Amino acid sequence: MATISKFKLEINNDWCKGCGICVAFCPKNVLSINDGKVFIQNVNNCIGCGQCELRCPDYAIFLGGKNNE
Questions:
Q1: Residue 9, number of CB atoms within 10 A of its CB
Q2: CATH ID of 2-66, from 3.30.420.40, 3.90.1300.10, 3.30.70.20, 3.40.50.360
């Protein structure tokens, strides 16, 4: 699990197939593909739009509420 400054973002690398759909839909370039799996590269850029979670066909990404909840 990786935690970002404003929101809680979790990636289940066991479920990720590295398709890159989440990377393509992220408007702030928060995610990238590294060694065939999604990787959080710019943690502070996340705006919590949820496009990564919505578009992931493998349900490998979960965007939770604010980090202090």
A1: 22
A2: 3.30.70.20
pLDDT at 43: 78
Phi, psi of 31 (to 5 degrees): -105, 155
The alpha carbon of residue 62 and the mean position of all alpha carbons in its chain are separated, in whole angstroms, by: 7
* pTM over the 0.85 mark: no
Closest CA to 43 of 26, 60, 68: 26
Half-sphere exposure at residue 60, Cβ-oriented, CA atoms within 13 angstroms: 21
